[in-house]
Specification:
Layout (H helix, E strand, L loop, with lengths): L5 H10 L4 E7 L4 E6 L6 H8 L10 E5 L6 E5 L9 E2 L6 E2 L8 H5 L5 H6 L6
Antiparallel strand pairs: 1-2, 3-4, 5-6
Amino acid sequence: MDCAVCPITVRKALAKVPGVTSAKVDFTSKSPEVVFDPKKASVDALTNATAGAVMTAVVLTTIITCPACWHRKDETMPVDACAWYYECEHCKTVLRPNYGDCGVFCSYGANKCPPMQQAGSCCAG
């Protein structure tokens, strides 16, 4: 786990395994703490669930472009939340996500939000 999004993604992957009642992941120690029912889940199932969950690189910055005035600004995206509103500093238009997008960075940014870059699914889901 090399970035701040990895523990969140690993925790979500572990929580989806049938039989898991609790999953916590510590970024500093790079290790999970999982409580599960061994009758319903196995270590192999947990390992398989997390196999694709850790990213190697994710872009945390993007250039967001206002569709009203075309003003562009470099922004740092949150790693664990979707930005549902963004006010253009130039024309003061409040941007909202396009239908089907999880946030304004996925709609108007040069790069998708970190969870979409890694897993193709939104952090809100």
